[in-house]
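Morning run. Coffee first, then this:
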Amino acid sequence: MKRLLYTVTIAVILSITHASYAARSPQRIISLGPSITRQLYLLGVEDSLIGCTIYCEKPKEAKEKERVANAIDVNLEKVISLNPDLVLATSLTNPKAIKKIEALGIAVILFATPENFSQLCSQFAELAERLGKGERAQEILTAVKDKVYLLKERVEGFKKTRVFIQVGAKPLFTQTRDSFINDLIEFAGGVNIASGAKSGFYSREKVIEDNPEVIIITTMGITGEEEKNIWNKYKTLDAVRHNRIYILDPYKFCSVTPVSFAETLEEMVGILHSQ
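And here it is:
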């Protein structure tokens, strides 16, 4: 009898705790980053999303949400009118806008651009906990990490492929060692030729000197095709000689989630080891 009473008591306590936590979970969320918006949909809290940026285009349902910002600037009047209880900002969000939002008593959580896969996963878990979706996040992360492990295992022992990833055109811009993109390259069995650079600004002369075997272009719009045509003029590049210049969806690299990281990694493995 005592054991039954103890079990029932614990169940009641857990139920009350869960209900209390759920009640504290934000119900009116504004996302100021495309990657954050995608993560909200992964966690199944899209009904609580009331506003996002003009660049939040995935999933397609996000286009129906109220637009309150571009990549940097925030329409404060629109934010206030929507009466959010949580604003999720990124390192690109205008710091002055963040301060003004906080001054209104609105909670703001700032997520920096993840520097590696581990940090990407940690941020996703942190976001999920804040929204009362910790269990859902752990299910997703377990599946993602298993997939990443298997892909890394698949390329173990393969010859390392020299890679240059272009994320900007004017000026030419890439990603260095402290980025999740560097992890994508290394996990896929590649070597980032810019890993040792002090910044992402890179010259074509330096790319030619480093002579990558693969060039991946992730710039927006028609710029990708234009850049591919420019690179194809440098006939001495191994990537040009072997026709290994690829244009990939910039969302894969600029609006990343743990799930999309694993999906892009699988694509990268195919690209780097196709020959």
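The radius of gyration is 22 Å. Good start to the day.
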